[in-house]
């Protein structure tokens, strides 16, 4: 390190200046500098010889300076030990001598107790007589020669007698100086045994009982010696400080005897963070958990045996010394194998036995069950309806999605369930409606299936379409109600045909009612039907074309019921919105490519749904209600060619009725023959009486 960038010389060491090194060696106690030429690396050990003494200092030897080993002789050390009394008996050694191992007997300060300790222990506390305090009362005679020392064992000397006249300047309670009492006539004390004069006041010294807020004091008169027990009570607390108890102060002199424990259980978590302390009147601060952890280790086979702790358990310490192989034995993990190690991964094809003969595509695995076979095959569905293709081999229960259609046990119905597994009805009976036609109306029975019993006698609930004779009135009724109506008509017809027969004669009813009468319309034509028939006959008599519409029948617009008009007056905006939506729907379906178009209304109450249904009939729109209350709604469907937009909407009709009176009714003309139609137009015609056959009682 003396020359920067030394010149190169082929006779010298590379990067060397050729001068003496002169650096201080690494050995700390070597005073010599390195005496070889400039060299790389650390300096070699010092080759000089020096004289060194042994560890005990009794002998000396000549050794190399760089030698780091300590020199030991075979003589006894002989150095003075820590006690200052004895010498070291060990052979020459390094470091300080061990403490003196001899025992010595020591006496306490008061001289009543002895102890044995190692020589030289606590010698600095000696007072020339004793070496330690025995924590007992000293008991030595004081300088007065009459009283004993009441202090705890202490070094010499003892204090002065506390009752000497030179020491006592006040009364026993300390409130009054003795000089003032002497002025009042008290006898002057000469020696320590003379009584100390009392001032006669209340003592007032603070007692050990009470609390910081309320300190109890002695209530006796000024006295010598200890104060009497307190007459009050004090509150003491349990160990944990949760509850307190009131006890007489006289018992507080021995506080350890009156400590108590409350019944409160500690709710704090233990050090593990899993369990609660649950100790009664707990005073612990750490709350260490003494239970065993017991959680499963990472191997999944063994449990943690350490005390319950926070965080994750340590890895399982158990190890196997057997080779761990895959199922086929191609891949091996050599011991030691930590517990919980999974078998090695193997790239070979699985060699386990399989349920099918299809080729295996999965690798060797350690799981007991092989993956499902995914080879595509052909399998029949569960109901044997069709042979399905491209079905994975592991799938067994395949449904084709068609109806089962297998004959049930009743022999009358077929299963309506989607292709399924097993029997159609195991513990159940067929509950499909009976399809046997009824005797009178030929409608199906519709009662729950009863294969072994005749059909019950119940009213038919099937709906039938009825119309009047002219075909204008159409109505859907329940079959049983329609049959009652037909029976009333048939009874009237029979009664009219039996008027000419004698009473008491038997008549066959089947001959009186013809097949045409049995198939006749079951609705009676009303006045409007009769008016239309008379107008039609009158038009034929006058040779008027039907398309001319002379009586303004077609242009009169749709007929709205009085109830619908009344509801529209109550909620005109709702009806206007419904009609606007229906007109837009009809126009869209008539102009578009589709034959049908639907619109779904939001859920609404029953009255609003009824308004929609009635307006849908006027517009020729199909309307159906779906869902249950309170979310029942209406869906309307317009059909091309069937749905129409009336010329007069309900709102416009109501506006016209409010602005003007309704138009006069169309005159009705009596039916006449074609020959006399022209001659009798101006004469008043007598109307025929109309018989309402539906009002006749059975």
TrEMBL record:
Any one GO cellular component localisation term in the record: nucleus
Location(s) in or outside the cell: Nucleus
Keyword annotations: DNA-binding, Metal-binding, Nucleus, Phosphoprotein, Repeat, Repressor, Transcription, Transcription regulation, Transferase, Ubl conjugation pathway, Zinc, Zinc-finger
SMART domains from the UniProt entry: R3H, ZnF_NFX
Pfam families: R3H (PF01424), zf-NF-X1 (PF01422)
Residue segments, region Disordered: 656-698
BP GO annotations: negative regulation of transcription by RNA polymerase II
Span of domain R3H: 572-640
Entry superkingdom: Eukaryota
Molecular function terms from GO: DNA-binding transcription factor activity, RNA polymerase II-specific; RNA polymerase II transcription regulatory region sequence-specific DNA binding; transferase activity; zinc ion binding
Family: Belongs to the NFX1 family.
Protein's name in the database: Transcriptional repressor NF-X1
């Amino acid at each position: 390190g003396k020359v920067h960038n030394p010149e190169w010389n082929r006779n010298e060491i590379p990067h060397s200046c050729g001068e003496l090194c002169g650096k201080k060696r690494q050995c700390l106690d070597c005073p010599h500098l390195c005496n070889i030429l400039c060299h790389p690396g650390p300096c070699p050990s010092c080759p000089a010889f020096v004289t060194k003494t042994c560890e005990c200092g009794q002998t000396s030897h000549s050794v190399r300076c760089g030698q780091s080993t300590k020199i030991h002789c075979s003589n006894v050390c002989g150095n003075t030990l820590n006690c200052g009394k004895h010498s070291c008996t060990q052979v020459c050694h390094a470091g300080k001598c061990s403490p003196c191992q001899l025992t010595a007997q020591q006496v306490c300060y008061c001289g009543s107790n002895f102890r044995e300790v190692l020589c030289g222990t606590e010698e600095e506390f000696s007072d020339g007589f004793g070496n330690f305090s025995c924590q007992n009362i000293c008991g030595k005679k004081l300088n007065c020669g009459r009283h004993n020392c009441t202090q705890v064992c202490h070094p010499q000397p003892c204090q002065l007698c506390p009752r000497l006249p030179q020491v006592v300047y006040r009364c026993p309670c300390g409130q009054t100086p003795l000089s003032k009492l002497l002025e009042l006539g008290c006898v002057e004390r000469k020696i320590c045994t003379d009584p100390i004069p009392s001032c006669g006041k209340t003592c007032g010294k603070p007692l050990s009982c009470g609390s910081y807020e309320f300190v109890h004091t002695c209530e006796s008169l000024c006295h010598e010696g200890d104060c009497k027990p307190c007459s009050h009570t004090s509150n003491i607390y349990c160990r944990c400080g949760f509850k307190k108890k009131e006890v007489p102060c006289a018992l507080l002199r021995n506080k350890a005897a009156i400590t108590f424990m409350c019944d409160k259980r500690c709710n704090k978590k233990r050090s593990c963070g899993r369990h609660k302390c649950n100790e009664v009147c707990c005073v612990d601060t750490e709350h260490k958990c003494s239970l065993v952890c017991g959680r499963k280790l990472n191997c999944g086979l063994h449990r943690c045996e350490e005390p319950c702790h926070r965080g994750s358990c340590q890895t399982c310490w158990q190890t196997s010394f057997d080779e761990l192989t895959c199922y086929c034995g191609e891949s091996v993990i050599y011991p030691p194998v930590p517990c919980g190690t999974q078998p090695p991964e193997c790239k070979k094809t699985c060699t386990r036995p399989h349920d099918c003969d299809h080729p295996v595509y999965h690798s060797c695995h350690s799981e007991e069950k092989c993956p499902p076979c995914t080879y595509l095959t052909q399998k029949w569905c569960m109901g044997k309806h069709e042979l399905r293709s491209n079905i994975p081999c592991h799938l067994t229960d395949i449904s084709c999605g068609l109806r089962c259609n297998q004959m049930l046990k009743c022999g009358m119905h077929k299963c309506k369930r989607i292709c399924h597994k097993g029997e159609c009805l195991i513990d159940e009976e067929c509950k499909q409606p009976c399809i046997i036609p009824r005797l009178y109306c030929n409608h199906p029975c519709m009662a729950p299936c009863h294969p072994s019993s005749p059909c019950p006698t119940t009213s038919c609930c099937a709906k039938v379409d009825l119309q009047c004779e002219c075909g204008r009135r159409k109505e859907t009724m329940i079959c049983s109600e329609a049959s009652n109506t037909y029976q009333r008509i048939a009874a009237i017809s029979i009664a009219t045909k039996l008027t000419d027969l004698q009473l008491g004669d038997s008549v066959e009813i089947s001959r009186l009612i013809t097949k045409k009468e049995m198939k006749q319309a079951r609705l009676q034509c009303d006045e409007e039907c009769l008016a239309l028939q008379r107008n039609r006959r009158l038009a034929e008599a006058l040779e008027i074309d039907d398309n001319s519409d002379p009586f303004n029948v077609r242009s009169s617009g749709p007929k709205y019921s009085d109830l619908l008009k009344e509801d529209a007056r109550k909620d005109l905006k709702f009806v206007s919105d419904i009609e606007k939506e229906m007109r837009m729907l009809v126009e869209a379906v008539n102009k578009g490519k589709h034959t049908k178009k639907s619109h779904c209304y939001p859920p609404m109450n029953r009255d609003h749904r009824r308004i929609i249904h009635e307006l849908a009939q006027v517009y020729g729109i199909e309307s159906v209600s779906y869902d249950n209350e309170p979310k029942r709604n209406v869906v309307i469907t317009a059909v091309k060619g069937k749905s129409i937009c009336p010329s007069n909407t309900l709102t416009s009709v109501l506006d016209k009725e409010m602005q003007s009176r309704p138009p006069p009714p169309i005159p009705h003309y009596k039916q006449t023959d074609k020959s006399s139609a022209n001659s009798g137009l101006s004469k008043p015609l007598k109307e025929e009486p109309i018989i309402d056959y539906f009002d006749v009682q059975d």
